[in-house]
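Example record used in the benchmark description.
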Amino acid sequence: MTENNNIKHECNRIIRAVHDAMDVIGGKWKISIVASLRFGKKRYSDILRDVDGISGKMLSRELKEMEADQLIKRTVLDTHPVTVVYELTDYGETLHQVIHHLADWGVAHRKRIIG
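Model output (structure tokens):
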């Protein structure tokens, strides 16, 4: 392969990988939900309170998708009334650095734009 072909191949590989990642964590709410759960197990109402602006219907949908993608674990506790808690799986924990870097970038961006 020529150098230009190598660069094009690497560019396509990176873009494909980013698309794969965004299929799992993309959208307006999933990163915020992961960030909330980085601080430990939480009940639905705790996550709803943490993630400002998300509706209950949207949170339910996002949690189901994230559970299907094996990012979070849903546990039903044998209490009365029933308590459901959510937590990151070991796989979901692998997003820690992504969240950390994204948050750092967000702080720097806010400073740059707002001053």
